Amino acid sequence: KLTNLGHLEMTWRSRVHFHPLLVRILHKSRLRYYGKPEKKMDMPYQAYFEVADGSGMMSMVLWNSLCPEWYHSMKVGTVLLLDKYTIKTSYPFKTQPTPGDSQMKRFAAIEISLNVRDPPTEISIIPEEMVKPEWGLPEVKYRFITRSELDDLPNNHSCDVIGLVTYVGRAERARKREHSEDFWLYRWAHAIDGTSDQPFILELFATSQPDVFEHIHPMTYLVCTQMRVIQDLTENPSRTVYLTTSNESQIFITGWHKGQPYTKDAKVKNFIQWMKSQSEADQIKKTVIGGYYPFPRPPDSFLKY
């Protein structure tokens, strides 16, 4: 006997035990480490997911030692059967991904909590070939844009992109806060999709996918999801639009695309068709790797600075 997310939202205050849930993962955040020197915790990890069934979408939090055990198997598109989970009121300050389906109902007041004890949550992954249409689980939807559409999008707009990498910079570090010991790791990349003379300029922060982040190189097909548009809002005539990763961004390169839900998307198929018409030798001549990439570029004179 299953329950659904809509029913949970209406009845969660009056119950302690809940029926099992069948949901599909639509978004996945990067893994968060919240350890502090003075706190003695074995595995201070946490990861957010947005999961959905036929009734709508809700946040799900994976805690502590469940993270190293389950984080990598829980992919966008994965179907889960959950039992012995708990329901809590939502943490108000977490980031919100932009759903691919704007019509989907969002249950924002509560979240599903998966713990290793009190009670120990039971998690099962349902293989895609065993998922039945009558379960009514939503498909993963994307918001792919082409390079020719990018300049007209507003600041902070959320989108997904696919392109051929023509440039990738070295990994750089930026302090998370002034005088702090923590750093963000990021690198710049350019990707083209044939719809514009200009490339996508991508600021890629290290997500929880080090195996992908370290192997972005020219001539790979790069997919980045849940990217945010950064428009320079000053009156600068040479302003450049670029995209930066968000907390829910996922990055995929050649070798990782098989079986991903976005392979059915029309804009992804159009890009593959365009690539088939290109000469690899010509494209390789235009590619660059490494070096320092000053961006956004400083003005060309001190007066304008």
**Percent of residues in beta strands:** 25-35%
Structurally, how many domains make up the residues? 2
Task: Report the helical percentage.
Answer: 10-25%
Order of helices and strands: HEEEEHEEEEHEEEEHEEEHHE
The CATH first-level class of the largest domain comes to: Mainly Beta
Q: What is the overall number of helices?
A: 6
CATH superfamily of the largest domain: Nucleic acid-binding proteins
Low-confidence stretches: none
Task: Summarize the main sheet.
Answer: 8 strands, mixed
The rough form would be described as: globular
Radius of gyration: 21 Å
Number of strands: 16
- Indicate the CATH architecture of the largest domain: Beta Barrel
Ends distance: 66 Å
Q: Class by helix and strand content?
A: mainly beta
Task: Kindly report the average pLDDT value.
Answer: 92
Protein name: RADX protein
Organism: Rhipidura dahli
GO molecular function, one term: single-stranded DNA binding
InterPro entries: NA-bd_OB-fold, RADX
Task: Explain the overall architecture.
It is a single chain. With 305 residues, the protein is mainly beta. It has 2 domains: 5-135, OB fold (Dihydrolipoamide Acetyltransferase, E2P); 147-303, Nucleic acid-binding proteins (OB fold (Dihydrolipoamide Acetyltransferase, E2P), Beta Barrel). The chain is 12% helix and 32% strand. The protein contains 6 helices and 16 strands. It has helices at residues 5-11, 66-70, 147-150, 210-213, 266-276, 280-285; strands spanning 21-28, 32-33, 45-53, 56-63, 79-83, 86-89, 106-114, 122-126, 158-168, 172-175, 183-192, 200-205, 221-230, 242-245, 251-252, 288-289. Strands 1, 2, 3, 4, 5, 6, 7 and 8 form an 8-stranded mixed beta sheet that branches. The chain has a 5-stranded mixed barrel with strand order 9-11-12-14-13. Strand 10 (172-175) and strand 11 form a beta hairpin. It is globular, with a radius of gyration of 21 Å.
